[in-house]
Amino acid sequence: MEMLLSHEFWIGLFAIIWVNILLSGDNAVVIALAARSLPPKQQKQAIIWGSVAAIVMRVILTIVAVEMLKLPYLKIVGALLLLWIAVQLLVPEDDGGDGQAKTYGSMFAAIRTIMIADLVMSLDNVIGVAAAAKGNVVLLVLGLAISIPLIVFGSTLILKVMDRFPIIITAGAALLGWIAGDMLPTDPAIAEWVKANMDWLVSLWGAPIIGAALVVIVGTGLARRRPPLPENENA
User: Fold this and answer.
1) Structural domain includes residue 137
2) Residue 214 lies in a domain
3) Are the C-beta atoms of 145 and 174 separated by less than 8 Å?
4) Which of 30, 77, 144, 154 has the smallest set of CB atoms within 10 Å of its CB?
5) What is the pLDDT along the chain (235 residues), one digit of tens a residue?
6) Using CA atoms, how far apart are residues 137 and 123, in angstroms rounded to an integer?
7) CA dihedral of 80, 61, 17, 121, whole degrees rounded to 10
8) Is the pTM of this model over 0.90?
9) Which residues contact 164 (CB under 8 A, 6 or more apart)?
């Protein structure tokens, strides 16, 4: 009760919510991308459950983030995984059957994609949240929980924009490729070598540009080889 009456608590809570809003734009994009091929009812469920699962994972990750980011090769693996996810988001799903089983299978696949992508993208972002919490786990959990409706709203809004402007899908996947490219050369295992030999990858945004271009080229190339989704897929 004393904690709730403390002005430091409320300042910290506001800081966590604000930091999470600023850092969750890319998360809202990936949630919308992962849910876009589902029927409207499953879209809402995937967005809500995907957002909740992502926030829970972010709480856990934030608690151990500082030590995790010191591990070599973690960012490299995460960046490669994020590149793969971004490419897959550009490729239409195979229409390999009908019925409720396929629908819910796709929904759980979307939730899984949301969780994995959020985990990878949060490797750097959670540092800001952890700093705002100043070691107060209760404050951390409460602040992130309050942020869930904001992420859900952002994802829903982006999903509606994607329906009207499909180019947003490609732009969203490119954003994930940019994030992956920005993450990879900062891994402790190669950061010093990159700085000494290929500093342009970081200083001139070479790696993020390559990551975004790679996702668009590979993703659109694979998408052309797949048959288009039926017109009633999202009906």
Assistant:
1) yes
2) yes
3) no
4) 77
5) 555 667 777 777 777 777 666 666 777 888 888 888 788 888 888 888 888 877 777 777 777 765 666 678 888 988 898 899 889 888 876 544 444 444 445 788 888 888 888 777 776 666 666 666 666 777 777 776 777 777 778 888 888 888 888 888 899 889 889 988 998 998 989 999 999 999 999 999 999 999 999 999 999 999 888 765 554 444 4
6) 18
7) 0
8) no
9) none
In a domain, 196, yes or no: yes
Chain position carrying tokens 């985990």:
119
Q: Is 23 helix (H, G, I), strand (E, B) or coil?
A: helix
34 closest CA partner among 54, 56, 18, 61: 54
Work out how many domains the chain is built from and give that number: 1
- Cα–Cα distance measured from residue 24 to residue 222, given in angstroms and rounded to the nearest whole number: 28
Domain extent at residue 166: 8-225
Cα dist from 137 to 37, 59, 151, 229, whole Å: 36, 9, 21, 45
Overall size of the chain counted in residues:
235
- Residue 192 to residues 68, 187, 203, Cα–Cα distance (Å): 18, 9, 13
**Does any domain span residue 231?**
no
